[in-house]
Structure formats: C-alpha cells, structure tokens
TrEMBL record:
Residues that span the membrane, as ranges: 29-51, 71-91, 112-135, 155-176, 183-201, 235-256
Key words of the record: Membrane, Transmembrane, Transmembrane helix
Name of the protein in question: ABC transporter permease subunit
Length: 261
C-alpha cells in the first residue's frame, strides 16, 4: 500500500489531480468555446479586411496573397483573453470558493501545488492555441478565396508560434492570479499590461517611451508570432514573454508561501 501511495503522490499525483479538476469545471469548457468563437469571428473579420484591401482601386493598398496562418495570428490579440481567463480561474476560483484550503490539505507543499497548476495551464494553453490556430486557418481559407496562401512549413510555424505564445500567456495568467488571488483584479492587470499600457506608450511619439512597449508581453509575443520586429530578433520576443511568465509564477509563489490560504 505504501508503494502504491508513493507512486500516486508527489508532483505526478498533483498534476493528475489538477488536470482532472481543470476538465471537470464548466469554466474550462466555456473558455475554450469562447476562444473558438472569437477565433472564428476574428478570422472572418481579418479575411474580409484582406480581401477588401486587395479589391479596392488603390494599387498601393494591394496586399496580394495572404498566408492563412497570418490571419490566425492577427486574431490572437482578442482570442488570448479566453485562454487567459481559463488559466487564471485554475487558481482564483479556488480562492474565491475556499477550495484552495482543500487543495493544500491534499498537496501541502505549496511549491509542488503551484508547479502542478502551472504545468496544467501551460499544456492546456498550448494545445488549445494550436487547435485554435488550425480553426482560424480553416475559416480564413474559404473567406480569402483566391487570395489565400498556404505553404506547409510557414503554416506549421504560425500554428506552433501561436501555441507557444498562448502557453506562456496561460502561465503568466496563472502566476498573476496566484499573486493577486482575485479574478477581477487579475483580468484587469493583464488587460492593462497586454493591451492598454502598450497602446499608450506607442502613442506617445517619444522613441524611448515607445521602445519600452516592445518589452511588454503582448508586443513581444506579436513580434515572435509575426516574425518581425524593429527592436530585436523575433525569437527574443518569445524569450521576453517567457521571462514575464516566469516572473509572475515566482511572484505568485512568494505570496503563496508566505500568506495563509
């Protein structure tokens, strides 16, 4: 009995428990459904923009053939918030409902608990990101018509880039949720960091201030997914997002370790 118990415990057991919990709450399914809806609508919208630009009378506005993967990338700005909401609820819902006490009774080592939640958030975010990217590409293909471009290597790169970015943003959301413990507070903070603050910085017309925006997770992630940035190589964008995710988890762990549940 002892051997069986030891094999089922530890990090592996904690991950299995968190994985089961994630798929047995309605918020996970609603978040994924919302992500699919947003990706579908976003792909339609950006495809229409592309075809309209190609069909107008201004030759300088002719974008030509558009890679279907780029349409999915363009939709990520909005789609990401569905997966961010899913990831943060893995921890904030337990704080709001008091289930965090039960979770810590079953997994008293708080670092192990947070690591298990982080692993689950990363896997769900990454896998969902890949599937949503495929969905966006599938919707964009008929919408673009003769302007649809598909090259296997480029498309796989776009799909994997979206999966990597959304995996890291899910980890970022989980870490920030652990730090703030509030779903509303976490969502507001992420919206400010990812959307509002970068927009304000980029609108300043001050080069030094605009450069700060390049190192925020939303802008860095977009540079990575789109494969272009004036400030740095696109791969550095992925590392910047990873640094934000790691910092959020470390900060969340510091609070989780010190405070009572």
């Amino acid at each position: 009995m002892t051997a069986v118990a030891s094999r089922g415990g530890g990090l592996r057991g904690a991950v299995a428990a968190e994985w089961t919990k994630a798929w047995t709450v309605r918020s996970t399914w609603w978040s994924l459904l919302a992500g699919a809806g947003l990706m579908g609508l976003g792909a339609v919208q950006f495809s229409i923009f592309a075809t309209n630009a190609n069909g107008n009378d201004d030759p300088s506005d002719d974008k030509g053939v558009v890679a279907v993967g780029e349409i999915a990338v363009a939709a990520v700005d909005v789609v990401q918030f569905a997966l961010i909401g899913l990831a943060m609820l893995l921890i904030t819902a337990e704080y709001s409902g008091g289930a965090i006490r039960t979770a810590l009774q079953w997994v008293p080592r708080r670092g192990v608990l947070l690591l298990a939640k982080t692993a689950v958030a990363a896997v769900i975010g990454g896998a969902a990101g890949v599937l949503l990217a495929v969905l966006g590409s599938a919707v964009a293909t008929p919408m673009l018509g003769r302007w649809a471009g598909f090259e296997a290597s480029g498309w796989f790169g776009d799909v994997l880039a979206i999966g990597c970015y959304l995996s890291l943003m899910s980890v970022f959301a989980l870490g920030l949720g652990t730090l703030l413990r509030s779903a509303a507070g976490t969502l507001i903070a992420i919206f400010l960091i990812v959307m509002l603050v970068p927009a304000l910085l980029q609108a300043s017309d001050i080069t030094a201030v605009e450069r700060i925006a390049d190192y925020l997770p939303g802008i860095a992630g977009a540079a990575f997914m789109r494969g272009e940035s004036e400030a740095y190589e696109p791969v550095l964008g992925l590392l910047i997002v990873a640094a934000w995710a790691a910092a959020a988890v470390v900060a969340g762990y510091a609070v989780l370790r010190r405070r009572d549940a």
